[in-house]
Amino acid sequence: MNLDTVTDITASGIGFTVPILVAASGELVSERAGVLNLSLEAMMLTGAFAGVLGAVSTGSPVLGTVAAVLAALVFGALQSIWSIALRADQIVVGIASNALALGATTYGARLLLADGRGHAVPGFATWDVPLLHRVPVLGPALFAQTPLGYLCLAVVAVLGLACSRRTKAGLVLDAVGEDAVAADRTGLPVRAARYAGVLVAAGAAGLGGAQLALSEVHAFSDNMTGGIGYLAVVAVIAGRWRALGVLWASVFFGLAQALQFALPALGVTVPFALLVMLPYLLAIVAVSGLVGRSRAPRDLTVAFHRAA
């Protein structure tokens, strides 16, 4: 395997990583506040669909991205109402939302995008950072992103800092996620923190969906996220609810997805079904405890009831 091949695999892996990472960074905020946002897949898929529809309708990928974020925020608002205001089971809400999004986007694509006119999807072109994009291996992966890709990485950095225990926001998230009742007694805005966490996760997932559709694929297809939202949730668990851990877990899953296409091109004979399963098999290993155990926020998935 020569250097060019390694560079290509790395660039492809980072391309898969960015949507996972930005969505996982938003999910980290939500879970640290105590809400398991399992509907991340729905938010990413809806964001991808709305991004393509918005870009096709307006001719602008920027407006398409805005549409993607707004569409994902709609799901975030619904998730907030069901999981926080109505205290519904967060896992059931997530599964139902994912099923709803799959059906709605499939129908919407048939109705609005598959009319036989062959819509050209306006997408983002790459912006190469002078000199840095020529650095072997990492240069094309990190410094030849689209503007949306750079925005996603900037959002990841901001959310990582916000989740730090050295910031007020990070301390509030930890307090609310560990013991919501005690946090409420000290005057912390538990419900507001949880609403904010879910909406941040939704906005980040919308960006991830737009990145996938408008930067990587320049198209929309049925179920195009293909479980990326679930991988983002797993990345938070495998990353032990810490920003740096989420980063490495996302890179790991992104490279695993890139290997689906790289191994056959390298002449490695592996059953195709196994290659498709590879990221998810690795995800199971990551959350099984074989690579180290960690403790989730104590009140994760626990509905908040104000003490009398």
Task: Give a structural overview.
By secondary structure, the chain is an all-alpha fold. The protein has twelve helices and two strands. The chain has helices at 3-32, 40-58, 61-85, 90-113, 138-142, 147-162, 168-178, 180-185, 190-217, 228-238, 243-265, 272-287; strands at residues 127-128, 144-145. Strands 1-2 form a two-stranded antiparallel ribbon. The protein is globular. The mean pLDDT is 87.
Mean pLDDT: 87
Report the count of strand segments.
2
- What is the CA-based Rg, rounded? 19 Å
Structural class: mainly alpha
Regarding quaternary structure, what we see is single chain
Which blocks of ≥5 consecutive residues have pLDDT under 50?
none
Strand content: under 5%
Q: Quick one: overall form? A: globular
Largest β sheet strand count, sense and barrel closure: 2 strands, antiparallel
What's the helical proportion of residues?
55-70%
Strands side by side in the biggest sheet: 1-2
Number of helices: 12
N-to-C order of helices and strands: HHHHEHEHHHHHHH
Termini separation: 66 Å
Transmembrane segments: 6-24, 36-56, 62-84, 91-113, 142-163, 195-214, 220-239, 246-266, 272-291
Keywords: Cell membrane, Membrane, Transmembrane, Transmembrane helix
Protein name: ABC transporter permease
Main location: membrane
Topology record:
Layout: H1 3-32, H2 40-58, H3 61-85, H4 90-113, E1 127-128, H5 138-142, E2 144-145, H6 147-162, H7 168-178, H8 180-185, H9 190-217, H10 228-238, H11 243-265, H12 272-287
Antiparallel strand pairs: 1-2
Helix pairs in contact: 1-6, 1-9, 1-10, 1-11, 2-3, 2-4, 2-9, 2-10, 3-4, 3-9, 6-9, 10-11, 10-12, 11-12
